[in-house]
Amino acid sequence: MGLTITDTYYLKAKAASDYDWDEVCESLNYALSYDENHCAALCLLGKVYGANLNQYEKAFYCFDRVIAIDSHYLGVYPLYVKYLIWADEIERANKLIAFSLTLKGISKGNIFWLSGVCVRN
């Protein structure tokens, strides 16, 4: 079993995310055109919207889609909480933190750190 074409395009986008925005956009568009429910690609798209474009509502939409597709996709929770904090959505962040801590396998250290950031805000 090998990588799917969606995985390949996602990995190209992720690898280029620090230096080549044309490649990121093109590869993400290809990945999501092959599989619009690819959780990792949707998370990366949400990260692009939140971190690079300050379009938090679009980022939140991507993260909500991931949770709707697979609520056990653990990579979405730290990202989502981080951007909720950046958007000063502390109450929503705290609710998401509480939920994410119930998930088996979640990086609790990372979530607790984000929880501490919420308390300081």
Explain how this protein is built.
This protein is mainly α and 121 residues long. The chain has one domain (5-120): Tetratricopeptide repeat domain (Serine Threonine Protein Phosphatase 5, Tetratricopeptide repeat, Alpha Horseshoe), CATH 1.25.40.10. The chain contains seven helices and no strands. The radius of gyration is 15 Å and the shape is globular. The relative contact order is 0.10. The model has no long low-confidence stretch (mean pLDDT 94).
Assign the CATH superfamily.
Tetratricopeptide repeat domain
Content of β-strand = under 5%
Overall structural class, as computed from helix and strand content, comes to mainly alpha
Multimerization status: single chain
> How many beta-strand elements?
0
The span between the termini is: 46 Å
Question: Fraction of residues in helices?
Answer: over 70%
What spatial form do the alpha-carbon principal axes imply? globular
Largest sheet: none
Could you name the ranges where pLDDT drops below 50 across 5 or more consecutive residues?
none
Helix-strand pattern: HHHHHHH
